């Protein structure tokens, strides 16, 4: 009879532990989704700023139509990407093209002196900083989720209930990691 009580207590303790691990995994998954939403918001802010930037530059830069078209295509591709890895790659390309735009602006003193261009450049700088902050937060949330999904014994609960590892938001091309040197 005593062994039945001990077995019932052990089963109850195991069930409570499984519930606690499951709830922790749910919380980590939600934190990761919330962090991705933060990245998405900042990327949309940047995407919404780009048409204003292109129109401002278009008035000054007459020989750079190809670059402006490339920015427009990159922006469209960024809005159509689905996975985290695909979105990171496309956003990295968009960032590189924007860096080229600011480098080209060096050759146009009237453009650099334009208050509208300066304001847009300052806004884009702020958004880029915000993207870096939310990206670090997202990657931290992904790290915590991935550790819980891979670690024993929580990996047993994760596998049982279909929790999967999340992808980091990272740049694949080392040249995309380089910050463009732009001096105004």
UniProtKB/TrEMBL annotation:
InterPro entries: LemA-like_dom_sf (IPR023353), MamQ_LemA (IPR007156). Its main location: membrane. It comes from the Bacteria. One of its GO terms (cellular component) is membrane. The keyword Membrane applies. It holds the Pfam family LemA. SUPFAM superfamilies: LemA-like. Keywords: Membrane, Transmembrane, Transmembrane helix. The keyword Transmembrane applies. It is a single-pass membrane protein. It is found in: Membrane. Belongs to the LemA family. This is LemA family protein.
